[in-house]
Specification:
Blueprint (H helix, E strand, L loop, with lengths): L5 H12 L24 H16 L5 H19 L12 E3 L3 E3 L4 H20 L3 H22 L16
Antiparallel strand pairs: 1-2
Length: 167
């Protein structure tokens, strides 16, 4: 929808996701069902950040990002706070849009977190928020390495056996 109706998507970000009267909380959490259920779902939170980055990329100028950066930054910070040791892997209860809190290393949720950090770094750089960009990058780099160590199980055949193109 964001590619077909970019202005509508930007409106949704501003009127729902980043609006304190609808889904946005002071701590940066975005309620997964706006004002009807303010429970923060990791996948929904990361998705809002990623959609905000897409919406900015589809903009002709910095207006959208300038208006929304404080909220986007808070939303990213909210996710970082769910990564207690900032190793790039989410910790504790990880509520998601399947209406459950999952625990442990959840590839689906941590991969969305890493993607949100990557987008956050790019937006922070554009906003000249160098310290926050560096923090996002550092966690993302640690997370990319830790993700493979913690969640790659070669016995399940999730990655090729050989990285030299032979298998």
């Amino acid at each position: 929808m964001g590619r077909l109706f970019p202005e509508l998507e930007k409106l949704l970000r501003e009127k729902v996701d980043f609006n304190p009267q609808a889904g946005f909380s002071r701590d940066g959490g975005i309620g997964m069902r706006a004002e009807f259920d303010r429970t923060v779902a990791v996948d929904g939170q990361a998705g809002c950040i990623l959609r905000a980055y897409r919406d900015h990329q589809m903009s002709a100028d910095m207006t959208f990002l300038n208006r929304n950066w404080p909220s986007i930054r808070k939303a990213i910070r909210y996710l970082i706070d769910q990564d207690y040791n900032e190793d790039g892997i989410l910790d504790g209860a990880q509520h998601n849009t399947l209406d459950a809190a999952w625990y442990g290393h959840i590839p689906w949720l941590s991969s969305l977190y890493l993607a949100a950090l990557h987008a956050g770094e790019a937006m922070a750089k554009e906003m000249n928020d160098d310290a926050f960009a560096a923090q996002c990058r550092a966690i993302h780099v640690r997370g990319a390495a830790n993700f493979v160590k913690a969640m790659w199980k070669p016995e399940y055949g999730l990655f090729p056996v050989s990285r030299n193109g032979t298998g």
